[in-house]
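Summary for the steering committee. One of the milestones for this cycle was to obtain a three-dimensional model of the protein with uridine-5'-diphosphate bound, which we needed before selecting residues for the alanine scan. The sequence and ligand used are listed below.
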Amino acid sequence: MDHDQESGAGHLLLFPFLAQGHLIPFLNLAKRIDSLGQRAGSGGRRSLAITIVSTSRNVASLRRAVPAGSSIGFADLPFSPSDHGLPPDAEGADVIPLQAFPAFYFATESLRPPFEKLVSELAAREGCKNVCVLADIFLGWTAESASALGVQHRVFLTSGAYASAVTFSIWLCPPTFPRPANPDDEQALFDFPDVRLRYVQFLNMVVTEVRASNPMMLYLCRMLNLHFHHSGGLVINTSEEIEPKGLHLIGKLSGLPTFAVGPLIGGRTPSDTPPDGDVCIEFLDSKPPASVLYVSFGSQNTIPASQMMELARGLEASGRPFIWVVRAPVEFDGAEEFRAEWLPDGFEDRVAAAAQGVVVRQWAPQVAILAHASTGAFLSHCGWNSVLESLWHSVPVVSWPLMSDQLFDSRMLEELGVGVEVASGRMSGGLVKGWEHVRDVVETVLGDGEKARDMRQKAAELKELARAAVNADGEMKGSSVLAMERLLDSVFG
Ligand code: UDP
């Protein structure tokens, strides 16, 4: 551990799951707590020590993303991916092939002994009641460790409340979801009878149909149960204004007090400020306001090769400008070099020559793209961070959810009036209506019609609500700032 801040006011150990979509919100949570602590510092309320716990590569990249002068500290735990049959540098879910996910999830439990050593040393130094572990939902064993070591524990849920409640309910529900005679029939969930879904959606939300004997499903359920049994509360990256229903459902399912402290969005740090001359930003600079479609399936997901072809055809046929972050189709190793044959013949050259599109490999500066005035819509897999970043920057969404919680994030965006679904599912379903459908939906969302105008209006309203929730100024304190204060009071008194 690289800082010895002994504030006496409490020490938070933040422990994200090893994946970009988890590390980023944990870092944003640390920054938020740090900035609120500094704000309250002059009044003498509290000055907490914050340490982010991860493996060495992740710590190195997080460290670069922390603003100068921040008091956030880091602790790295030894981790040897090759001991678990994984590539030696596999310290994040985004760099391993999808089929290796189960091995990777199981491997993270090997962090338990060094983590427990870290916690017990800290507790010995600072006192048990002054230490709280704030860990990822996929690291349920930390709750058992905290309970055994006599320190406090809270879970931090980096996905949305509504989609998590539905997903967890499906994972934990013992009987299988019966296959209906008509695949379009909707069935009610056991825990939430007013939430209904089709069989194909169910298939995309579970790791396997035969849950009872699937090791990955058993692992995930064990993590949830450990948290629900041992933890003292559920901290969620959402706000009461965005997800009132979701917060009610997840509180009911977990039996834990909930603290909606979001949205936690990346600030302008060196890591999310694109370098000068960034191809995406230059493209956006050359286009009119709200005209460009940004296309990305997040940090680790991708679509099948045949659907990549259809998406390309639909984008080109829409005639609308676009930025598309591509990675190898599902059937290939994610680390593989992108091949021209995965896109229609001559596609990249044509869209570049017409100044219609930019195709970026693997990664783009998403937050900066969404913040740019020329971005008009986001074709997204609806990972929760992407959803929040869209709401934060009032960018309407063309949704293409692939799996688990993403399906219900997409449903929520439609219910909020800022999303239109173009396709759904990766293991089953997907883009069933072909490239013409992509073209038509892009036009619905980016065009001049009533639907597009309504979506833009709704997105502008939600942006105001999202920002008001995290307003930390005096009389106007937002709901999420108050929730953060309640959380810290519940932990350190
Ligand atoms: N991200 C990015 N550039 C990319 C892909 C992703 O900056 O090319 C960031 C994005 O801004 C978000 C996170 O990575 O903060 C992805 O999280 P999300 O929950 O949306 O999806 P996941 O990757 O976890 O499926």
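Key point for the committee: The CA atoms of residues 8 and 166 lie 40 Å apart.
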